[in-house]
Design a protein that fits this description.
Radius of gyration: 18 Å
Largest sheet: 3 strands, parallel
Distance between the termini: 45 Å
Oligomer: single chain
Helix content: 40-55%
Shape: globular
Order of helices and strands: HHHHHHHHEEE
Mean pLDDT: 79
C-alpha cells in the first residue's frame, strides 16, 4: 500500500499529535479539522446530528486504526470499503474528499508545527489519496444540492480565512465546478489546482494571477483560452 518509510513517517507524526499534550493545536486536532471542513463547505455541517466531541473521537480512533492496519492490506481495504458504504448511507458524496484532504492536511500542519516538513506532507497526501481510492467507489456521486459550494465561494473562503497551504497552494479539485473562480481574491495564490472539474472556459481577467507558478486545469472541458 505504502512503502515502509512512508508508513513510519505517518505513524510517528500521528504519535506526536496524539501524545503531545503541550501543544494546544495538537490537543484539539479533531476540532481544528471539523472547523476547517465547515468553513470550506458549510452545508456539510447538517450531516452531523450528534456531539462533535464524540465525532472527533471517532475520527482520531479511525485514523489510528487505519495506520495500524497499513501492514495488512486485505483488512485495511475491507475496513475502508465498509467505511465508504456507511458514508453512502449518511449521504456523503465522494466529492467530499476534496474538503477532507484540505482540512486534514491543514490541521496536520498546524498540529505538527516544527515537525511538519515536505516529506511528512507527501506521506500524508499519499495516505489520503489511498483512502479516497478505496472508499470513493462505495460512496457514489453527488445528489443535487442547492447548497453545493461554488468555485467563487470556496475560493473566497480559502483566501479570506487565510487557509492556503504554506506553499501558497489552493486545491479546488473534484468539486464539479463549472466556472473559473473569481481571480481577484486569488492574487497571491502560487499554485491553483482545479483538476477534474467541469470548467469550459477561462475569464479574460485570469491575467491578474501574476504570482501563479502552477495552474492545473487537467480533466476539465476547456475548448479555448484567452488570447492575452
Amino acid at each position: 500500500l505504502l512503502d515502509d518509510k512512508s508508513v513510519a513517517l505517518l505513524r510517528k507524526s500521528w504519535e506526536v499529535i496524539t501524545l503531545n499534550a503541550n501543544n494546544q493545536a495538537t490537543k484539539n486536532f479533531s476540532t481544528l479539522f471539523y472547523k476547517r471542513a465547515f468553513e470550506l463547505a458549510p452545508h456539510v455541517r447538517g450531516l452531523f446530528k450528534h456531539s462533535m466531541d464524540a465525532q472527533g473521537n471517532k475520527l482520531m480512533l479511525m485514523i489510528a486504526k487505519l495506520l495500524d492496519l497499513l501492514g495488512d492490506s486485505l483488512t485495511f481495504t475491507i475496513t475502508l470499503e465498509e467505511l465508504g458504504s456507511r458514508h453512502r448511507m449518511y449521504k456523503v458524496p465522494a466529492s467530499a474528499f476534496s474538503v477532507f484532504h484540505e482540512s486534514f492536511l491543514y490541521s496536520l500542519e498546524l498540529a505538527l508545527a516544527g515537525d511538519w516538513n515536505s516529506e511528512i506532507r507527501s506521506a500524508w497526501i499519499c495516505f489520503c489519496k489511498l483512502l479516497e481510492d478505496i472508499m470513493a467507489p462505495q460512496m457514489g456521486g453527488d445528489s443535487e444540492n442547492p447548497n453545493e459550494v461554488t468555485a467563487r465561494g470556496i475560493a473566497q473562503t480559502h483566501v479570506s480565512a487565510n487557509i492556503l497551504h504554506s506553499s501558497g497552494e489552493l486545491n479546488l479539485c473534484n468539486l464539479k465546478i463549472t466556472s473559473f473562480p473569481d481571480p481577484e481574491p486569488l492574487a497571491h495564490v502560487q499554485q491553483l489546482i482545479l483538476r477534474n472539474n467541469n470548467i469550459s472556459q477561462l475569464p479574460a481577467s485570469v491575467g491578474v494571477l501574476k504570482n501563479i507558478q502552477l495552474l492545473d486545469l487537467s480533466k476539465n472541458k476547456l475548448k479555448t483560452i484567452p488570447s492575452e
